[in-house]
């Protein structure tokens, strides 16, 4: 084992201070880096090996601290934090910018006809369903029936919202029609995410103490986590779908809007840290009692909220 790199570096946590917005922003800029989509399986597996070996007290000869952190973020970008499984490529957060730029551009461009509205809302919700499943919190499996119900519910909600608002805006200024895709996306997020993660709402998500020791599962933590994710996802859509109609629809402005989406994704993710917390007193009574018996000094629990 090399003596150059100490084993005291805590790679279970992000490199930057997650109690500040800038620290969270720096963290999510790394997590959502689109270049990670292009990494080969060999690079991902090598990063996984470096991270897992380091956690087990094994340091690769010649490994530097910067290389360790780079491996950690490559690992985090491709492997689920709770299950450890390699995530679907288009469901990873590093795919958010290129995928959302394409889909958002099409929704804002092709919104005038009913078939176009239906098609692009279906495409968007199909993509969102993959993202929500891929970035779910916890390690419990979700059934095919649950996946299907969430997908159908969200897609139906988005299409109904889009068509309903489209009909209402026929007699309003043309610019109002540009807000229809955003309203549909916001409504669909409020449906899609809770449905896709309904098992967490029913059975709870893992909560841990400050050292990462698992204390149990909490549905209250799941409710907080899902609410934070819904707000973040709607926030992601604002720069690309709600602001441009206010400014203008000119082609040259669309390029500006797309550039902003690169920054919007990590900044909106940074609204809440990925590892959220809540007081033990806010948990279910039976879980509170269990924690008091097993870890009496613990007053705050932590959980992965998902993305």
Automatic annotation (TrEMBL):
<keyword id="KW-0813">Transport</keyword>
<dbReference type="GO" id="GO:0015075">
    <property type="term" value="F:monoatomic ion transmembrane transporter activity"/>
</dbReference>
<keyword id="KW-0029">Amino-acid transport</keyword>
<keyword id="KW-0812">Transmembrane</keyword>
<dbReference type="Pfam" id="PF03820">
    <property type="entry name" value="SFXNs"/>
</dbReference>
<dbReference type="InterPro" id="IPR004686">
    <property type="entry name" value="Mtc"/>
</dbReference>
<protein>
    <recommendedName>
        <fullName>Sidoreflexin</fullName>
    </recommendedName>
</protein>
<keyword id="KW-0472">Membrane</keyword>
<comment type="function">
    <text>Mitochondrial serine transporter that mediates transport of serine into mitochondria, an important step of the one-carbon metabolism pathway. Mitochondrial serine is converted to glycine and formate, which then exits to the cytosol where it is used to generate the charged folates that serve as one-carbon donors.</text>
</comment>
<keyword id="KW-1133">Transmembrane helix</keyword>
<dbReference type="GO" id="GO:0005743">
    <property type="term" value="C:mitochondrial inner membrane"/>
</dbReference>
<dbReference type="GO" id="GO:0140300">
    <property type="term" value="P:serine import into mitochondrion"/>
</dbReference>
<comment type="similarity">
    <text>Belongs to the sideroflexin family.</text>
</comment>
<keyword id="KW-0496">Mitochondrion</keyword>
């Amino acid at each position: 084992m090399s003596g150059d790199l100490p084993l005291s570096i805590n790679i279970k946590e992000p490199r930057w201070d997650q109690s500040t917005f800038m620290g969270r922003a720096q963290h999510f800029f790394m997590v959502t880096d689109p270049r990670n989509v292009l990494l080969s399986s060999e690079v991902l597996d090598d990063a996984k090996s470096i991270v897992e070996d380091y956690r087990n007290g094994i340091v690769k000869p010649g490994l530097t601290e910067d290389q360790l952190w780079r491996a950690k973020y490559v690992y985090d970008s491709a492997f689920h934090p709770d299950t450890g499984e390699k995530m679907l490529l288009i469901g990873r957060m590093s795919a958010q910018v290129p995928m959302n730029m394409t889909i958002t551009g099409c929704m804002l461009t092709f919104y005038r006809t009913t078939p176009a509205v239906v098609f692009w809302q279906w495409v968007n919700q199909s993509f969102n369903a993959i993202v929500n499943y891929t970035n779910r919190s916890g390690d419990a499996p979700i059934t095919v029936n649950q996946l299907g119900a969430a997908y159908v519910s969200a897609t139906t909600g988005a299409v109904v919202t889009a068509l309903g608002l489209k009909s209402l805006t026929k007699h309003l200024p043309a610019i109002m029609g540009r807000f229809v895709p955003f309203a549909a996306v916001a409504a669909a997020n409020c449906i899609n995410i809770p449905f896709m993660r309904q098992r967490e709402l029913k059975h709870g998500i893992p909560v841990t103490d400050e050292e990462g020791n698992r204390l149990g599962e909490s549905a209250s933590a799941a409710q907080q986590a899902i609410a934070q994710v819904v707000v973040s996802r709607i926030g992601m859509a604002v720069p690309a779908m709600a602001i441009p109609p206010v400014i203008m629809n000119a082609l040259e402005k669309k390029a500006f809007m797309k550039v902003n989406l690169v920054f919007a994704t990590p900044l909106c993710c940074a609204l809440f840290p990925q590892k959220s917390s809540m007081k033990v007193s806010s948990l279910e009574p039976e879980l509170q009692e269990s924690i008091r018996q097993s870890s009496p000094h613990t007053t705050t629990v932590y959980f992965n909220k998902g993305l």
